Structure formats: structure tokens, C-alpha cells
Amino acid sequence: MGAAPTARVVIAAAGTGGHIYPGLALAEALRAADPDVVVTFVGTRRGLEGDIVPREGYELDYVDMVPFSGANRYFLPGALLRASEQARRILRRRAADVAVGMGGYASAPVLLGARLARVPSLIHESGAIPGKANLVAARMTGHIATSFPSAVRAFPAGKGIRVTGMPRAPEFTVFDLD
């Protein structure tokens, strides 16, 4: 028998460090569990991910998505459709086995792209109050993880919601105050 195929995970984490760093911690946990796993990221060109993700050694693809607030609300439906098609193509090119949305502008289009590509998906909400992108993305998957129990009630009923806590960098497990 041959070896099991290498798992391929695409993580959408965009905008702020509050989405990106938990995504990186998840990527490191996946690599610790399976050194052969292939993890790539999807983001936008406007967030911090363009600097942080490549510096941490991960490949980063981009979708053209707009923020979920302000005057962008008029452009949001068209931008979501365009970015979701871009995400669908990325997921197919990366041969993704699963798509994970960590929040930020890229999460909703990646989850919609995953649905279109028939790729299993989940979101992780790291805040006590879910962000708009993850609330939209939650409509496109049945799998939701949260850091805080208080976030659960914001998501649609009938979804598979688990309180998993915050993914954190392994450096915190050995933090020494002495």
C-alpha cells in the first residue's frame, strides 16, 4: 500500500493580525500533526497578510474583495461574486482538501468559492463578537469554530458550532517569565 496522500489546506486570513496570527498558529499546528501537509493562504492586497504570511514561509494567493462597511456596501455583491470565482479557481489550482476562513475580507469569498468547488470548509471566529465576514461566511458552511462561548449565539441555528479556543503560536506554550 502507498502512503496516504498529502493533505492540502487553504486558509483565508486577511486584514488584521487578529485574523492572520491565529491562521498562522493553525497552519503550524497542522504541520506539527502532519509534516507533509501543504498549507497556503488567501488574502487581499489591502491587509497585513501581504507582509506577514510570506515572511512566515507560506504561499499567499489574492482575491479582489472590498471591506464589508461604508460605501463599499453598494459594490459588495459584485465584489463577493468576483472574489468567490477567484477563490474557486485558487482552491482548484491548489487541489484543496479543505478551506478554512479565519476572518477578514477574504473569508467570505473563500467559503463561497469552496462551496462552488465542492471543497469542505469551516470558519474560525476568534472574537467574542463575530465579525461581518465570518457571519456571511457562516451561511456557506455547516462547520463553525469559535474562541468564545459568547460568539455561538450570533451564528445561525442548526450549524455545527464548537468552542475550540484560540489557536496560538507554539512560542506561547514555552513562554518563560523568569
Could you write a compact summary of the structure shown?
This protein is an alpha/beta fold and 178 residues long. The chain is built from 5 helices and 7 strands, in the order βαβαβαβαβαββ.
Q: What is the β-strand count? A: 7
Might you state the CATH topology name?
Answer: Rossmann fold
Largest sheet: 7 strands, parallel
| Class per helix and strand makeup | alpha/beta
What strand line-up does the widest sheet have?
3-2-1-4-5-6-7
Distance between the termini: 50 Å
Strand proportion, as a percent range, falls in 15-25%
Shape verdict: globular
Q: Tell me what the CATH architecture is.
A: 3-Layer(aba) Sandwich
User: Helix content range of the residues, please?
Assistant: 25-40%
- Any idea of the CATH class? Alpha Beta
When the domains are counted, the total is 1
Mean pLDDT: 88
Low-confidence stretches: none
DSSP helical segment count: 5
* Rg from Cα: 16 Å
Order of helices and strands: EHEHEHEHEHEE
The CATH superfamily bears the name Glycogen Phosphorylase B
Walk me through the structure.
This protein has 178 residues and is α/β, with parallel strands linked by helices. It has one domain: Rossmann fold (3-Layer(aba) Sandwich). It is 33% helix and 17% strand. The chain has helices at residues 17-33, 49-55, 76-93, 107-117, 132-137; strands spanning 8-12, 38-43, 60-62, 98-101, 121-125, 143-146, 160-163. It has a 7-stranded parallel β-sheet, sandwiched between helices. Strand 4 (98-101), helix 4 (107-117) and strand 5 (121-125) form a beta-alpha-beta unit. Helix 3 (76-93) packs across helix 4. The longest helix is centred in the middle third of the chain and has 18 residues, at 76-93. 42% of the residues are buried. The mean pLDDT is 88.
